[in-house]
Automatic annotation (TrEMBL):
Residue span, HTH luxR-type domain: 151-216
UniProt cross-references to SUPFAM superfamilies, sorted A to Z: C-terminal effector domain of the bipartite response regulators (SSF46894), CheY-like (SSF52172)
Protein name, UniProt field: DNA-binding response regulator
Gene3D superfamilies membership: 3.40.50.2300
Pfam families according to UniProt: GerE (PF00196), Response_reg (PF00072)
Organism of this sequence: Streptomyces lacrimifluminis
Residues with PTM 4-aspartylphosphate: 55
InterPro entries: CheY-like_superfamily (IPR011006), NreC/VraR/RcsB-like_REC (IPR058245), Sig_transdc_resp-reg_C-effctor (IPR016032), Sig_transdc_resp-reg_receiver (IPR001789), Tscrpt_reg_LuxR_C (IPR000792), WalR-like (IPR039420)
């Protein structure tokens, strides 16, 4: 079945451009558009898309609050949010990731990257461009705790190897890179990541990376 996509941006011309790119793909179907966050929420309820391509800065309701209401805590719907950001790494993207976004993409990314990002997020592989995600978290370290806070009790439920994997996810490594670093198979890494998400009650790899920073397990800028 085709991946159902909802386009959310306050610039009609950009939405038209995204639609043209995505509709050229046999496995992607654009099911609707919205010009602000409020419309996005209504469209998600009505159209049940698989992926929402979400702008951040929009009138009436921005993309952060819309993301929170679509995919935040307690939301079990199928829609995953892929946030669009500007080249200079929009500071609100950190908040969007916390709110439940599954990843982000630069607005000026090539068409093939947009298409691949939609497929990656739809498949559940949420950590898109992990190195960029880490740079973004480092850039806005001021939004995150200092690391002096007590370690959350939930972290004590993880095994030593699961903690290792979580740290590497937060550093922006892919499953293949983690497997090479720990000398295990990618299948084993996927199993560990799954256990981490389940034990910590997290939606995906993006939230796991943010959690690692917020809990103080990983310090911004640390190697």
């Amino acid at each position: 079945m085709a991946i159902r996509v909802l386009l959310v941006d306050d610039q009609p011309l950009l939405r038209t451009g995204f639609r043209m790119i995505l509709e050229a793909e046999q496995d992607i179907a654009v099911v609707g558009e919205a010009g602000d966050g409020l419309q996005a929420i209504d469209q998600v309820r009505a159209l049940q898309p698989d992926v929402v391509l979400m702008d951040i800065r929009m009138p009436r309701m921005d993309g952060v609050e819309a993301t929170r209401q679509i995919t935040g805590p307690g939301r079990d719907g199928p829609a995953k949010v892929l946030v669009l950001t500007t080249f200079d790494l929009d500071e609100y993207v950190v908040e969007a990731l916390r709110a439940g976004a599954s990843g982000f993409l630069l607005k000026d990314a090539p068409a093939n990257e947009l298409v691949q990002a939609i497929r990656v997020v739809a498949s559940g592989e949420a950590m898109l461009a992990p190195s960029i995600t880490r740079r973004l978290l480092d850039k806005y370290a001021g939004h995150l705790p200092s690391g002096d806070e007590p370690v959350p009790d939930a972290l004590h439920t993880l095994t030593e190897r699961e903690v290792e994997v979580l740290k590497l996810v937060a550093r922006g490594l892919s499953n293949a890179e983690i497997a090479a670093d720990l000398f295990v198979s990618e299948t084993t890494v996927k199993t560990h990541v799954g256990h981490v998400l389940t034990k910590l009650g997290l939606r995906d790899r993006v939230q796991a990376a943010v959690y690692a920073y917020e809990s103080g397990l990983v310090r911004p800028g640390a190697q």
